[in-house]
Write a structure and sequence with these properties.
Distance between the termini of chain A: 50 Å
Largest sheet of chain B: 7 strands, mixed
Largest interface: A-B, 21 and 14 residues
Strand order of the largest sheet of chain B: 2-8-7-6-5-3-4
Distance between the termini of chain B: 26 Å
Strand order of the largest sheet of chain A: 12-15-14-13-16-17
Strand content of chain B: 5-15%
Mean pLDDT of chain B: 96
Strand content of chain A: 25-35%
Helix content of chain A: 10-25%
Number of strands of chain A: 18
Low-confidence stretches of chain A: none
Number of strands of chain B: 14
Structural class of chain A: alpha+beta
Oligomer: heterodimer
Radius of gyration of chain A: 22 Å
Shape of chain B: globular
Largest sheet of chain A: 6 strands, antiparallel, barrel
Order of helices and strands of chain A: EHEHEHHEEEHEHHEEEEEEEEEEE
Structural class of chain B: alpha/beta
Number of helices of chain A: 7
Number of helices of chain B: 11
Helix content of chain B: 40-55%
Chain lengths: 369, 380
């Protein structure tokens, strides 16, 4: 084992408080720390100011406070090719993509990791709320201690080989403690607001953003019984289970999105939060990543179908083609194709995949997929 | 680990004699050169001496020197000033695609204000030809602005020959001599330029200073208002201590020009030789027999600029890609883009090394060894 001072850790710094504290903690532990800012998106506001420039300024201030070198690296092309193209393709297919999962897989823990290794890094570190447990050669990813902040959902596509070279120094800390450390050390980003939403959209209106890239095709809103309820602005703007923004009222509501018909451009709605049409009994997932061993036999574990959701008990049935069928212990509401399903055995994240078909009576629900 | 500085084209260490000269003025002679008392006269004396030194360095008259806040301001003043003062004679301006942004962006602004611009291309040599200027020249051309030495490649442009063909033309001839000054001898009578830009911090002087040589026939529209200083062309109380430091730096580069030139040739040769001996795969950008020895731009096939620069820095070698950065990441160089095309691998894997006061043969050899080890590690 190398001494910390001879161990180079390259930290992915966003200009936010989490990655700032990540760099600080590693520096305090005596590592040879290098801060790198990734510019993944060209975003210039109406005053000609690039938001990335402001974030990089924060990285510079923090790195100077900590006393580490900093650089910027441009992954705009990789991000466009690997993340944004996927994002648009999924919306075109009527699904709800998860660009953060893809960004971690393709950019932060691939392009960035490779870049860091070319700088002689022993590890890369990020401010994600997740933990890496190393036992000899065996490396596992555990949930972050702060239940409310745990980000393993977004990290489900990381492999054991990648995790070997990864540190998550915040994983054992509650968010409040991270803020406290930042304040105590007077870090320039101590009071900076957490970023919300998808990074390239930022605070902008999602609908407006998407319409710049995909043509919107308005169509009918109908119930599954074929009663017309109004018009929608384009199927891509809606996700399963959504209530807001439908613009329909009247008796029988409130109304929720229960499905889409891409071929006929119809948005299906149903009344009441607990509408039976929103409930399913299982799903089929593909693009599976198993962090440690790939399962050969069916097994029981817990799963999340969206970020910050509580765990739900499921049986996982591996298929010969590498996909899995997942059967829920109890029916689940608003399972959404395109979103990630992530599996856990207690605190250990096993990996995850992309939700494809949603099942009822062991058959795909036609109005969802 | 002491880092080795190979980025003198970006800025240079301040010479100890310059610091001494400035410190003395800062400590003792705080007067305002415009004041009508002994304090003012003392400051004025410093200013006049400095102006004489600057003028002599170009074989120019003292009245032709306008001190500015640096090369960027001098370029803005020359280009914007000359264009607007002479727009009734025509609105056509000639420049090149390889100018420093201080020139290029100023001329882009003229274009937006209704001037018509010819941007001359370069080929892989990185050198403009007299014929290109001749072809672009029109009756209504009022200004030609072409740099003397390119800041990224070190390639010398044929200023005297261009000066010759412009001799009987109405167009004023401006040259940005920021990278040439102190390395090449400059005589404005031989070059036949009307306007010439010099920066202090590129020649071991303080930052925030430069001068524009503007011959007395040139009319310049002021870009600033507010006082009588610099014959109204650059109002504002003069930075006397800085100007004294600048003048000292001018004296030093004038005195040591020949010996520095030889030393930089040795550094460049040593650097290249060391890379060759270590089996590094590289190509030198720009016409080598037409370059200053203080700048060398090298392409390392199979690498990329960002990774190289970070690796060099982490191992204690300071170099640059010579181009602008946005949010810390390197944009492709407009100079190499003009020479090779923006997509060409060479545009994205080239590094500028520039030599100067911080170097000697030992640290050049050491730096080249580190560069070689990194490039070999990344490519083999």
């Amino acid at each position: 084992m190398k001494d910390n001072k001879d161990t180079r850790v390259v930290v992915g710094m966003s200009g936010g408080v989490d990655s700032s504290v990540t760099a600080l903690l590693l520096k305090q532990q005596g590592y040879d720390v290098v801060g790198i800012f990734m510019k993944n998106w060209d975003d210039t506001d109406e005053n000609g100011v690039c938001t990335a420039t402001e974030d990089f300024d924060d990285v510079i201030r923090v790195c100077n406070q900590i006393g580490i070198p900093y650089y910027g690296v441009n992954f705009e092309k990789q991000y466009w090719d690997k993340v944004f193209t996927y994002f648009l393709d999924e919306y075109k297919a009527g699904r709800t993509p998860n660009p953060d999962v893809m960004c971690n897989k393709e950019i932060k823990f691939k392009a960035f990791l490779e870049h860091a290794l070319s700088l002689g890094a022993d590890y890369v570190a990020t401010g994600h709320y997740a933990q890496v447990r190393r036992e000899g050669d065996h490396v596992e990813m555990l949930r972050g201690v702060d239940e409310n902040k745990d980000q393993t959902y977004f990290l489900n596509q990381l492999s054991e080989d990648v995790l070997r070279k990864v540190m998550f120094p915040l994983g054992h800390l509650p968010k409040a403690e991270v803020r406290r450390i930042a304040k105590e050390n007077n870090l320039a980003t101590a009071d900076k607001k957490d970023s919300t939403g998808i990074c390239f959209i930022g605070e902008r209106n999602f609908k407006e953003f998407l319409s710049e890239y995909l043509p919107a095709q308005p169509g009918k809103i109908m119930t599954l019984d074929g009663i017309e309820k109004g018009t929608h602005d384009g199927l891509m703007y809606y996700t399963i289970g959504q209530r807001q923004g439908l613009g329909i009222g009247g008796p029988g509501g409130p109304w929720f999105v229960v499905g889409k018909n891409l071929a006929d451009n119809i948005l299906y709605v149903g009344a009441e939060y607990h509408n039976d049409a929103l409930y399913s009994e299982g799903l089929v997932a593909d693009a599976l990543n198993w962090i440690n061993e790939q399962p050969a036999e069916p097994f029981h574990c817990t799963a999340k179908f969206r970020y910050r959701q509580k765990d739900h008990g499921v049986m996982v049935y591996p298929n010969p083609d590498g996909t899995v069928k997942v059967v829920f212990d109890n029916p689940e509401r608003a399972i959404t194709p395109g979103q990630a399903i992530v599996f856990y055995q207690d605190e250990v994240c096993l990996g995850g995949g992309t939700i494809n078909d949603v099942l009822k009576n062991d058959q795909p629900i036609s109005y969802v997929g | 680990m002491t880092a080795i500085y190979l980025d003198h084209a970006a800025t240079t260490p301040v010479h100890p004699d310059v610091i001494q000269a400035m410190t003395a003025v800062l400590a003792e002679d705080f007067g305002n050169p415009s004041s009508v008392h002994s304090f003012g006269r003392k400051a004025r004396q410093h200013l006049d001496q400095a102006r004489a030194i600057a003028a002599q360095s170009l074989h120019a008259g003292e009245r032709d020197i306008i001190f500015t806040s640096g090369g960027t301001e001098a370029n803005n003043m020359a280009i914007t000033g000359a264009a607007f003062a002479n727009q009734e004679k025509g609105k056509h301006v000639i420049t090149t695609k390889i100018e420093h942004h201080a020139v290029l962006h100023t001329i882009n602004n003229l274009e937006q204000q209704g001037f018509e611009i010819s941007y001359l291309d370069v080929d892989e040599t990185g050198q403009i030809t007299v014929e290109q200027v001749q072809e672009a020249l029109r009756e209504d051309t009022i200004l030609v602005s072409i740099m003397m030495v390119n800041n990224e490649t070190g390639v010398i442009q044929p200023i005297a020959a261009i000066g010759e063909i412009l001799h009987d033309h109405q167009a004023y001839f401006h040259t940005d001599a920021v990278q040439a000054y102190g390395i090449l001898p400059i005589d404005i009578n031989i070059l036949q330029v009307d306007l010439l830009t010099v920066s202090s911090h590129k020649i071991n002087g303080p930052k925030g200073l430069g001068f524009l040589y503007s011959n007395k026939e040139v009319t310049l529209e002021p870009i600033q208002y507010g006082g009588e200083q610099e014959r109204k062309r650059r109002p504002g109380t003069e930075n006397v201590a800085g100007i004294v430091g600048f003048a000292k730096a001018i004296e030093l580069v004038q005195r040591e020009q020949a010996s520095c030139f030889t030393a930089y040739q040795q550094y460049r040769d040593q650097f290249v030789q060391e890379l060759e001996q270590q089996g590094v795969n590289f190509l030198i950008n720009g016409k080598q027999d037409q370059s200053v020895p203080s700048i060398i731009n090298i392409s390392f096939p199979g690498t990329n600029v960002e990774s190289l620069l970070m690796n060099f820095d982490l191992s204690g070698v300071a170099a640059s890609s010579g181009s602008a950065c946005t949010a810390g990441s390197v944009d492709p160089s407009h100079v190499l883009s003009a020479m090779f095309s923006p997509e060409n691998e060479r545009t994205n894997n080239s590094i500028r090394f520039s030599f100067g006061l911080a170097n000697d043969l030992d640290n050049i050899k050491e730096a080249a060894g580190k560069v070689a080890a990194i490039v070999n590690r990344l490519t083999k």
